[in-house]
Amino acid sequence: MTSNFPPALSRRGFLAGGAATGAALSLRPAWADTHRAFTLRAAPGRARLVPEPWGESDVWCYGGIVPGPEIRVRQGDRLRIAVENALDEDTTVHWHGLRVPNDMDGVPHLTQAPIVPGETSTYAFDAVDAGTFWYHPHQRSFEQVGRGLYGALIIEEANPPQVDREMVWVLDDWRLTQEAEIDDSFGDFHDMSHAGRLGNTVTINGRAPDAVPVRTGERIRLRLINAANARIFALDFGDLAPQVIALDGQPVTPHAAPGGRVVLGPAMRADLMLDVTAVPGATISVIDRFFAQDAYALLDLTVAETPLRDTAPNWSMELPSNPLPEPDIARARRHEVTFTGGMMGGMVERQMGLSSESGIGGMMGGGMMNRMHDGGIWFVNGVAAEGHILDPMLTLERDASHVIAMTNATAFHHPIHLHGHSFRVISRNGTPTAHREWQDTVLMAPRERVEIAFVADNPGDWMFHCHILEHQAGGMMGVIRVA
Question: pTM for the full model?
């Protein structure tokens, strides 16, 4: 991992230091018929991202805190959220992963007019699915999210599985100066054409991670949210071997994380069941191993001397299903989407036997610069997006099943997010997935081909983009119309 910014502040927890309408979706269970009102105020603020002796950092935030206030409701509740814009620029709020009506989706100029400074806009929708979600702007998101505008949105099940404790970890990284201020290099060409804006300081819930006390025999439900612009996490919990029970808010058959690592691209979430099987007095380091050469200890779990119980409980881990329509794969309409561009994009396209007309030239130089003059770095089916007002790249028949076969013909990972829907990930490189997991953001490796399937039951024009926010800003974005 390369960088062109000052080295990280030295403390554990810092990387360099080691550390339209939606009637079909108004599904309100009888047991949850309440209206919940919230207010979010987006404004400049100060937050202590790093410990003393460094001071607080200038941030943009909701409600004066980073992350913003946790919104927690029950499945079926009706939410009404007033968003006040106290910034000096336009903003919106997107409810990431929620199947909301199109006009509540928070995409400027596509689903709503931006919220101008000094004004308030109100969002209202039903909490259709239980699960772990989050909220963030879709206006200049590469900077607004990067400065701290985001928060957790938790929708509880009617009958959640039994646990001893629940924790929410909102993961982020920040590019800080030696004075602990946010580096202003947003929209940097190197970030846009490579892996995105990688920071030098990782936080959990807006603070440099500290040790977390646990007890032998304890069962913890851990909700993970990756709010970083570009950082991909691959968390290794050592011998604890957590069970994955939900991905992107949607239940999945409980299973151990593949390869022992919980991998989360930007915007992705995972719910884990963590049984503390270590002996009293032990210390378990949670290691981020995505960048093998730069693995670091995210935090320690310190096991108390007094156990809670001798062995892990045998309670069920299964989550109840959400009301998602099942796609009919055999009868599904098929669509092809190819992602190209970025540094070394032309080389990858040639290696994959694709034309390089839709991507950036070779390793660097003329091809890259020629495409830059045309206004694009990244391309979806040969088109680089500019702004949010786009002609649909695909028009999907409403209430029909669809399969989108996606090819990542680039040298970089891309977490691809579809608004307004969840989809099943049905294959990777032609091999069926083990759990056919429901997701709303799927991480694609370089040169990987992924097939997703879903019923297009939510009408409107929906964003479809890479959630490495610099890649989105550089053109990796399109619109899928459901009509």
Answer: 0.91
